[in-house]
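Private note to self, pasted from the team thread so I don't lose it. C-alpha cells:
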C-alpha cells in the first residue's frame, strides 16, 4: 500500500514538476535567434546547446560604448523660436533644414546616443561529442532554466543553465552524465571587443576589456569576465584563460562579469573586485543552493499569473515548427486544433523576459533587446527609444502582476529627470525637464538622429504616465508623493513652452511631430499640435491635477501656483478631431491618407495605452479610431503588431486582435531586411523573440500586454471581464491579472461565456465590474448602468462571482 501511495505521489509530483510552458527543440541552435535566452537583469546569456562545443553568448547590463555625457547643441536655444515661426508659417522644409543645422546635437559634432554592447562568449568544448543521438533542448519557463540532453556512446549527458536571480548575478552551467567520470571539457571566454587581456587569477580564468569608442566618444566602460569550475571527481587545471576538466562525475561552471559602472554619471567602480565578489559569492553557495534560491525568487513573481487556454496539443512538435504551423491556414483542419497553448506560452514567455531583464535592483531597465545583444553596434544602438519602444517594454508589468519589474524604469526616470532639467534650460530656456525620443545608459536627454524623428519633446511626459499608472494599480500614496515633483516638473516644462497656434488659437507643442511620420503633402513630420502630443500633454496635466488632489498637503513644494496654470491651460489644448473619411485625425490639419500603412499610429495613443477614447464615454471618437486602425492594415513591424493587439482589444474586437496575434506569431527568416530596399514585415524568430526585424523585444512585451487586455480591461472606471475573447479560446481560465484600483482578478470561462470570477481586493474599495454575461455573487449588486455591477470590497478579502 505504502508503495502504491508513493508511486502515485511520485507520479503526481513528476507531472507537476515537468514544465507546462516551455520552448522545446530537437536540434541545436545554428543562429543567435534560435538560441535560448536566460538572464537576471545583470547578466544575459543566449544558449546554443551544441553538444561538441557549447556556445553561450553573454551580456552584462552596464557594458555600453562611450562614457557619461549629455547631448545639447549650444545653438539650439537661439534657433528654436525661428524653427517654430517657420512651422507656423507653413515653411516646413525650411524649419526642418534649420533644425538639422542648428538644433540637433550632431550638427555641433556631438553623438547620437551610445550602443549597448556584448561582453562576449563562453565556449565549452567537449571532445568526442560531435556524434550524438537522442538530442533535445528546451527553455523551461516555469522554472527559468535552459536544458540540453543527448547521448554519446550510450552515456546520457545533460546541461542545465541558470542565471540566478538574487544577490549573486552569475551564469551557472551544471554538467552531469549518466555514468561516473564522464565529464571532460575545456572552457574559455572570448570577446569581440578590441585588445582584451586574457589570463588566470589563481584557479579562475579572466578576461579584461573596454567598451568601444562611438561617434567621437571614447569607450570607458571597463569590464572583467571571471570563470571558475567546481567538480565532483576528476582533474581540474587552468592556463592562459582556459579551464580544463578531465573525467569528473559532474561539474558546475560559473561565470561572473564585473564593470566599473556605478551609475549613469560615475564610472569609478572596480571591475576586478566586482567580478571577484560576484563569482565567489555564488561559488560559496554552491549550485544546488543557488538554484534553489533562484527558483524561489522566480516563482514568487512568475506564479502570480496562470493562463490556461486549453491542453498542449503539440507538445512533441519543436517550437519553430509550431510557430510555422500557427499562422498557416491548415491549422484547425485535419483533426488538428488551433495552438492555443502556443499563445499561452508566448504570454508567459513575455513575463519570463521581463523578469529576466528587469530585476528591481538593476542599473538599467530592459532596453530595445531586453538584455540580449550579440553585436558591437546593434540596430538603433539597442538603446531606449522613447517614442513607443521603451514604454511598450513595460506595458505588461502591472497588469500581469510584475510590478517590481518597474523599479529600473523608475530609476531611469529619476536619472533622466536630473539630466533633463539642464536640457530644458539650455535648449528651451524653460524650467521643468524634457526628454526627446531616445536615451541610453548615460541618460542623454537632448534630441538625436535627424530633426524629422528626433525633435520630439514629449518623452518625459509619456514616461510620467508609468508613474501615475503605478499609483492607480497599487494605490501607493507614498510612491505618488515621492514621484509627484517629477510629474509636476514635466508639466512645468509645457506650461512654459506651449505656443499659441496663430490661426487655430489652441496651445500646442511646437516643434513636435507624430512620431516619424508626416501628414499627406507635408515634406517632414515636423509640425505643431499633432494629436499624440495633445493627448500626452492632456494626460500629463490631468494626472498632475488628480495627483495633487489625492496628495492634499503639498506645502513642502515651491511654485505651486503652477497648478493653476495647468488648470487654465488644460481646456486650451486641441481636442481630438474626426477627419474627412471618418478617421481620427493624426494631425491638427486633416492630412490622413486612407492608403497609409505606416507602422506608427501615434494618434491612437488615446485608445491605448491611454484612456482618452472609450466606447462608452466617447463613442464617436472610438468609431473614428476603429476607422483609422482598419485603414492602417495589420501586418507591420513586430512592435506595431503588438500595439495593434492591444488596440483591437480596446476596440472590443477579439477576432481582429487574434488575427494580429497570428500575424505576429508568423515565423520570420533568420536574416533581417534593411530599411528601404524590401518592405519590412515583422514576425517571430524560432526562439520566440519578436522580429521588428531585426530582433526587438518591445513586440514580445506589447503582445503580452495585448493578450491580457483581451481577457480583462480596467481603464474605463470598471473591470471589464472578457472584453475581447476570440472564438478559438472557447474554454479557459486566467489567474492573477491585476486591475487598476488594486484588484487581482481570476476568470474562468466555458464556450465563450464567463462561468466564474474571483476578485481579490488588495486595498479595499468599490470594485465596479462589467460583464457581457449576467452575474450573481455574494455582495455583488447590479447597478442601473447596462452590464455594470459593483462590490464593496474589504482589503485582503476575496469575492466570488458566478454567471447567473
Ligand atoms: C522607432 C521605430 C522603429 C524602431 C526604432 C527602434 O524609431 O520607428 O521602427 O522600432 O524605434
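Design output:
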Amino acid at each position: 500500500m505504502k508503495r502504491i501511495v508513493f508511486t502515485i505521489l511520485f507520479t503526481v509530483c513528476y507531472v507537476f514538476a515537468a514544465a507546462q510552458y516551455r520552448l522545446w527543440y530537437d536540434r541545436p541552435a545554428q543562429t543567435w535567434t534560435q538560441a535560448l535566452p536566460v538572464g537576471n537583469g545583470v547578466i544575459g546569456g543566449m544558449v546554443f546547446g551544441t553538444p561538441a562545443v557549447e556556445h553561450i553568448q553573454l551580456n552584462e547590463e552596464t557594458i555600453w560604448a562611450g562614457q557619461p555625457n549629455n547631448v545639447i547643441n549650444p545653438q539650439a536655444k537661439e534657433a528654436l523660436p525661428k524653427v517654430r515661426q517657420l512651422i507656423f508659417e507653413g515653411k516646413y522644409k525650411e524649419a526642418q533644414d534649420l533644425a538639422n543645422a542648428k538644433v540637433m546635437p550632431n550638427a555641433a559634432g556631438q553623438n547620437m546616443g551610445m550602443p549597448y554592447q556584448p561582453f562576449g562568449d563562453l565556449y565549452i568544448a567537449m571532445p568526442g561529442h560531435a556524434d550524438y543521438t537522442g538530442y533535445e533542448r528546451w527553455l523551461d519557463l516555469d522554472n527559468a532554466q535552459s536544458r540540453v540532453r543527448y547521448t554519446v556512446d550510450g552515456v546520457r549527458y545533460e546541461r542545465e543553465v541558470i542565471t540566478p536571480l538574487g544577490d549573486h548575478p552569475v551564469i551557472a552551467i551544471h554538467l552531469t552524465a549518466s555514468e561516473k567520470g564522464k565529464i571532460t571539457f575545456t572552457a574559455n571566454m572570448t570577446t569581440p571587443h578590441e585588445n582584451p587581456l586574457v589570463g588566470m587569477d589563481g584557479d579562475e580564468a579572466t578576461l579584461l576589456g573596454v567598451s568601444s569608442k562611438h561617434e567621437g566618444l571614447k569607450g570607458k566602460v571597463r569590464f572583467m569576465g571571471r570563470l571558475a569550475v567546481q567538480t565532483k571527481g576528476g582533474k581540474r587545471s587552468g592556463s592562459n584563460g582556459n579551464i580544463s576538466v578531465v573525467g569528473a562525475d559532474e561539474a558546475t561552471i560559473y561565470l561572473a562579469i564585473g564593470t566599473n559602472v556605478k551609475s549613469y554619471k560615475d564610472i569609478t567602480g572596480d571591475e576586478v573586485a566586482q567580478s571577484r565578489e560576484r563569482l565567489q559569492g555564488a561559488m560559496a553557495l554552491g549550485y544546488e543552493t543557488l538554484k534553489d534560491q533562484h527558483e524561489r525568487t522566480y516563482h514568487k513573481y512568475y506564479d502570480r499569473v496562470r493562463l490556461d487556454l486549453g491542453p498542449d496539443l503539440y507538445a512533441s512538435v519543436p517550437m519553430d515548427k509550431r510557430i510555422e504551423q500557427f499562422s498557416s491556414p491548415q491549422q484547425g483542419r485535419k483533426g488538428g486544433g488551433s495552438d492555443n497553448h502556443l499563445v499561452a506560452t508566448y504570454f508567459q514567455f513575455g513575463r519570463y523576459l521581463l523578469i529576466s531583464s528587469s530585476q528591481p535592483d538593476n542599473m538599467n531597465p530592459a532596453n530595445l533587446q531586453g538584455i540580449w545583444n550579440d553585436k558591437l553596434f546593434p540596430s538603433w544602438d539597442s538603446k531606449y527609444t522613447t517614442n513607443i519602444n521603451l514604454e511598450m517594454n513595460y506595458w505588461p508589468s502591472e497588469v500581469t502582476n510584475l510590478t517590481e519589474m518597474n523599479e529600473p524604469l523608475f530609476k531611469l526616470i529619476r536619472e533622466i529627470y536630473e539630466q533633463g532639467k539642464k536640457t530644458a534650460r539650455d535648449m528651451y530656456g524653460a524650467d521643468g525637464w524634457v526628454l526627446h525620443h531616445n536615451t541610453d545608459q548615460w541618460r542623454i536627454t537632448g534630441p538625436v538622429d535627424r530633426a524629422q524623428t528626433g525633435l520630439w519633446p514629449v518623452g518625459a511626459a509619456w514616461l510620467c504616465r508609468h508613474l501615475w499608472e503605478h499609483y492607480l494599480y497599487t494605490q501607493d500614496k507614498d510612491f505618488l508623493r515621492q514621484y509627484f515633483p517629477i510629474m509636476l516638473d514635466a508639466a512645468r516644462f509645457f506650461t512654459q513652452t506651449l505656443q499659441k497656434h496663430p490661426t487655430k488659437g489652441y496651445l500646442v507643442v511646437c516643434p513636435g511631430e507624430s512620431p516619424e511620420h508626416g501628414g499627406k503633402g507635408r515634406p517632414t513630420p515636423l509640425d505643431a499640435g499633432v494629436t499624440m502630443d495633445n493627448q500626452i500633454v492632456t494626460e500629463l496635466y490631468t494626472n498632475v491635477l488628480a495627483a495633487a488632489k489625492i496628495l492634499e498637503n503639498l506645502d513642502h513644494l515651491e511654485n505651486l501656483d503652477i497648478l493653476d496654470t495647468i488648470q487654465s491651460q488644460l481646456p486650451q489644448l486641441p481636442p481630438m478631431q474626426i477627419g474627412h473619411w471618418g478617421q481620427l485625425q493624426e494631425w491638427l490639419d486633416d492630412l490622413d491618407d486612407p492608403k497609409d500603412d505606416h507602422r506608427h499610429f501615434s494618434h491612437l495613443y488615446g485608445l491605448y495605452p491611454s484612456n482618452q477614447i472609450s466606447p462608452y464615454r466617447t463613442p464617436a471618437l472610438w468609431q473614428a479610431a476603429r476607422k483609422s486602425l482598419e485603414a492602417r492594415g495589420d501586418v507591420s513591424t513586430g512592435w506595431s503588431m503588438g500595439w495593434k493587439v492591444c488596440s483591437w482589444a480596446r476596440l472590443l474586437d477579439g477576432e481582429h486582435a487574434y488575427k494580429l496575434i497570428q500575424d505576429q506569431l508568423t515565423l520570420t527568416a533568420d536574416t533581417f531586411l534593411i530599411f528601404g530596399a524590401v518592405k519590412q514585415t515583422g514576425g517571430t524568430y524560432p526562439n520566440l523573440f519578436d522580429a521588428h526585424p531585426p530582433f526587438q523585444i518591445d513586440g514580445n512585451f506589447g503582445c503580452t500586454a495585448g493578450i491580457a487586455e483581451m481577457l480583462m480591461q480596467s481603464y474605463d472606471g470598471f473591470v471589464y471581464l472578457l472584453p475581447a475573447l476570440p472564438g478559438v479560446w472557447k474554454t479557459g481560465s486566467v489567474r492573477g491579472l491585476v486591475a487598476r484600483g488594486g484588484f487581482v482578478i481570476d476568470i474562468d470561462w466555458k464556450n465563450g461565456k464567463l462561468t466564474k470570477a474571483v476578485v481579490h481586493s488588495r486595498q479595499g474599495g468599490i470594485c465596479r465590474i462589467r460583464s457581457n454575461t449576467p452575474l450573481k455573487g455574494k455582495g455583488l449588486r447590479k447597478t442601473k448602468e447596462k452590464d455594470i455591477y459593483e462590490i464593496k470590497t474589504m482589503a485582503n478579502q476575496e469575492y466570488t462571482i458566478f454567471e447567473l
